[in-house]
Amino acid sequence: MLKYVLLGALSYQPLTGYQLKQFVDQSAKHFWFAQTSQIYRTLDSLEKDDLLHSEIQEQQERPDRRLYSITSTGRQDLMDWLVQPMTEIEPTKDSLLVRLFFSAQVDKETVLMQLRLQRSLHQQQLNLFRTEIVEQIRAGMERRPDMKRDGLLWDCARRQGELMEESYIQWLDETIARIEAEF
Prior knowledge:
The protein has about 180 residues and is mostly helical.
């Protein structure tokens, strides 16, 4: 999946590895996370597969930088992937659910503490979706009004994250109440 996150980012404009990491951290991380080392390994692989190419740009008073650009083969691969129907629901991983599932042997206050901590973290993430990310999309659209369709889809992805956080918080509230009453 990281392959398509990187090809998608490069479909907008050529970027350095550092800029790609920033792109992931500022946008895609809300639905796909990657370490810097994973990004560079994937870039090397994509270049070997002729899905992108890179060139060294010399800089004054700074180290040279490598600029990556998507190739026509890379654009076609991205397009083929984008139009391919998704015929299955992807499984999810949730460490909190694994912990909760096996926590019958843990004392009530420890379980509640973990759930309340997670509620606080999910509330922070919900606030991020409602404020900072909305502002990032708005600012991006002001800079690039020609990307109106992109902005609409970015906001649809943001909204999904917002709804997921609302739902997770609702589930946490119900779970906390049940444990307080029944555990």
